[in-house]
Amino acid sequence: MNSTLPYDPDRYRQLRELVDRAAERPTAEWASFLERECPTDPVLQGLALRLLEQALAASADGFLEPSAPPQPSSVSVAHGEPDPGSAEPIHVGKYQIVRRFSESSGHAAAYLAFDPDLERHVVLKRYHVGPHGPSGEAEEGRALAKVDSPYVARCHGIERIDGEAYLVVEYVPGRNLAEVRRDGPLDLAQVVRILAQLAEGVAAVHARGLIHRDIKPANVILHDDGTPRLVDFGQTAHLGGSRLRARSGSPPYMAPEQARGEWDRIDFRTDVFGLGGVLYKLLTDHAPHAGSTVNEVLEHAKKADVTPPRQLDPTIPAPVEAVCLKALAAAPENRYTTALEFAAALRQAIEPTPVARHQRPPESPPGCAGACLGRSLPARSWRWRSGSGRGARRPNRLRIRSRPGSR
Questions:
Q1: How far apart are CA 91 and CA 81, in angstroms?
Q2: Any idea which residues carry the catalytic annotation?
Q3: Which positions ≥6 away from 298 have C-beta within 8 Å?
Q4: What percent of the chain is modeled with pLDDT above 70?
Q5: Phi, psi (deg, nearest 5) at residue 309
Q6: CA-based nearest residue to 245, from 258, 229, 234
Q7: What is the pLDDT of residues 87-121, one digit of tens each?
Q8: Phi–psi pair at 9, nearest 5 degrees
Q9: CA-CA distance, 257 to 330, in Å (whole number)?
Q10: Considering the domain 174-349 in this protein, what is its CATH number?
């Protein structure tokens, strides 16, 4: 189903009102409500439901506490008036606002918007003016625009509208990894591919001297083409910059140095912890840190009290667990030094290394005709699979299969 709608001010207003009204109802009633309100418009139904599900996933992986109520916007509306009773703009310059994303960081508000000139959807991020002024955020946006990776949402540029700075970021159609995992476990080969590609994207961010500081499943969109894209750079900071002293991260996925407020220890290895947290979630369907309150989660984060993945699912291969736990090490010096090192270790963890690959097989005695046990065995590889589907979980299993053409 197409995840966007053709530009039409009336339809955008209808979408916003529909989502707002549905959000007031229990999640179990969303689908029936949307069908009742727009029975002849399945495209509108689908987009509204997707926006609602994305908002739900974001709140589930966030701070577990309500965000501050939105403040009235100072954005002037160039081509329309604000929604009655709403503090959010309808237009920002030339951009038509679809809606505000439910999970916006403390440093920026994010909007799904339509660019009528290029006829495409984008994400607009408006930075709040802090004690250091907006120049730091603009400098950060310029650095992010230089990041060149297929696994990072592209920054199209910076717009200054009525004295406020906006980042114009690529809109990625798809679902975040929290939503994807909610549908059931993924094949291990797919998990490794996603995490390794994501790590390459994080390495490209680090190459520009930036630390994301909030890597978690909700901030990774799995594009419709199957590739991951790192999004939401609202908490990004320059390595060694003053912004590192601001609180960052989401408690269920926080590195210990973030939870403890040890600002001088936050560096690229903090993002490596985040990569380990995403891997942990995809493997176990749990966040590294859990608790019934925010303070309880933070206490677990400070201690890096992480349950080994194989205690939650014994079928997870031990080498994969080892990579995950090293990335989640309490002390930064015990983690992988770089995101690329993490990616290489994760890929190696599922590579078969049979002895027969490196040794010449013994020759068969005369008359054995190759039927003796001394004949070389076919090289083999394994693949970890998890039971899929909802309801009762089926036991995970290892599949052994011969590699075609192996000797």
A1: 8
A2: 214
A3: 251, 254, 259, 289, 291
A4: 68
A5: -55, -35
A6: 258
A7: 556 788 899 888 877 544 455 677 888 988 888 89
A8: -55, -40
A9: 8
A10: 1.10.510.10
> Long-range pairs for 326-331 at CB < 8 Å and ≥24 separation?
326/276, 327/272, 327/273, 327/275, 327/276, 327/279, 328/273, 328/276, 328/277, 328/280, 328/288, 328/304, 329/273, 329/304, 330/256, 330/303, 330/304, 331/256
The conformation of residue 265, written as its DSSP 8-state character, comes to G
More confident: 47 or 207: 207
Find the radius of gyration of the CA atoms of the chain.
24
Tell me how long the chain is.
407
Q: What pLDDT score was predicted for residue 8? A: 58
pLDDT digits (tens, 9 = 90+) for 353-395: 554 344 444 444 444 444 343 333 333 333 343 333 333 444 4
Give the residue extent of every domain in the chain.
1-60, 174-349
Contact criterion met (CB below 8 Å) for 209 and 239: yes
From the centroid of its chain, how far is CA 27?
22
Full-model pTM: 0.65
Taking only the tens place, the pLDDT of each residue in 305-348 is: 899 999 999 999 999 999 999 999 999 999 999 999 999 999 99
Residue 111 and residue 344: Cα distance in Å, rounded? 36
The residue ranking higher by pLDDT, 1 or 212, is 212
Q: Residue 226 pLDDT > 50, yes or no?
A: yes
Helix (H) or strand (E) segment spanning residue 312: helix 309-312
pLDDT at site 102: 55
pLDDT of residue 384: 43
- Find where tokens 């994301």 sit: 212
DSSP code per residue over 23-80: HTS-GGGHHHHHHHH-TT-HHHHHHHHHHHHHHHHHHHTTTSSPPPPPPPP----SSS
Mean pLDDT, rounded, for 131-144: 57
| DSSP β-ladder status, 95-100 and 91-92 | antiparallel
Q: In what order do the strands lie in the sheet with 228-230?
A: 174-176, 220-223, 228-230
Q: Which distant-in-sequence residues (6+ apart) come within 8 Å of 168 by Cβ? A: 115, 122, 123, 124, 155, 156, 157, 158, 159
Return the half-sphere exposure (C-beta side, CA atoms, 13 A cut-off) of residue 293: 3
CA distances from residue 228 to 176, 198, 220, 225 in whole angstroms, order as listed? 9, 6, 6, 9
| C-beta atoms surrounding 267 within 10 Å | 16
Does residue 139 or residue 193 have the better pLDDT?
Answer: 193
